[in-house]
């Protein structure tokens, strides 16, 4: 007598696995999005702090983000977690036209909406 699984038993196991995956998959995707949002918040905080320190030390704003790396205020420009690239950051110019430099603030280059409905570009 040969031992093994029948086709029906295999189909039942596959159906159970498929059902479990449909339950777990959306939660995983939601957690992945939340982790990207947390990373974005942290990266923005770090870069804004570096811009503020640069301004305090040099009495001007950096011309480009790369200047923060050159002057060792940042180790590297982090990639935007929403676009997964480090060249998509959107730079805000200083509000006062008399200020020297070009990098007053930085925002995400993504046009997506966050979990709370606000655009990442205004964070």
UniProtKB/TrEMBL annotation:
It comes from the Bacteria. InterPro entries: Bac_GSPG_pilin, N_methyl_site, Pilin-like. The keyword Zinc does not apply. Keywords: Methylation. PANTHER family: GENERAL SECRETION PATHWAY PROTEIN G (PTHR30093), TYPE IV PILUS NON-CORE MINOR PILIN PILE (PTHR30093:SF47). This is Type II secretion system protein. It comes from Methylophilus luteus.
